[in-house]
Structure prediction request, 242 residues.
Amino acid sequence: MAAASSFLRPRVQNVVATCTCGTALYLTGIARTLRYAEYNPRRFSAVAVRLRTPRSTALVFSSGKIVCTGTKSAWAARWALLKFVALLRDRCHVERAHVYTFRIQNMVASVDAGFPVALARLRRLYPREASYEPALFPGLVYRAHATHGVVALVFASGRLVLTGAKHADELDRAFETFWPILYTAHARYGDGDGEPNDEPNNDDPTTTTTTTTTVETLLASLANEGLLDVPATPLCGETEPF
Prediction:
C-alpha cells in the first residue's frame, strides 16, 4: 500500500476556540462602545467583534462566553482571545474580565492528495464510512473510527478538507490514515467492473473555494455536532476592523 509523501501535510485554514471572561456582559454597551462591533439581537444574541491582527472574529455572549474563529493556529487563537478580553477591560471598562477555560473546539485544514479520486468508487469500496450524494453536493464525506473524530471532505480533484481536530498533530495522523484509502480510488486506474471513472471537474468552484469556510458555516457545523453550546446564525457584513 502506498504511503503519503512527507511533503503532503494538511495546512490549517481556520481554528475555532472558546473561553469565558468570568463575568456577565452588557452587550448593548459593548456594541455602542466598540464602533467596529456588530450587534443585532433580533438575529443573534451575541456581539460580533473583528480584529485585523491576528485576523479573527469573536462572538461575545452576555454569559461571558467568547467564541473566536478565523485564526490559523492555536497560538493565534489564544492571542486573539487575549486581545478581545483586553478590549473589554480597556474600552468597555469590564475590569473583572480575564481569559478562563481556553479550549480549541475545532481545526479546519486543507490538503491535496496529489492525484484525482473516483468518488463513486470510493463510496462503493467503503460504504459504511463514505457518504456521497453528487446531486446535492460534489464532495464525498468520509468518516472513519480510526481518525478519532476527524472528518474528510473529498473532491474529485484530490483536494481534501479535514475538520473535527483539536490539535494539528491529529490532522497529520488523520491524513496519513486517509491517504492510502484514497489511493485505492485513484481515478486514473480502471475500475475493472465496467463502470466509468469519475473525472475531476476543473470548472467546479468548490475545488478552489472550500478552504475559505465562512464563520456561519463553521458555527452551524459545530453546533450540529454538539461541539459548541451556542446557537448558530449568519453574521452581518464586514465592518471596520481593529
Q: What stands out?
A: The beta strands are 11-20, 37-38, 46-51, 56-61, 65-71, 100-112, 130-132, 140-143, 151-154, 159-165.
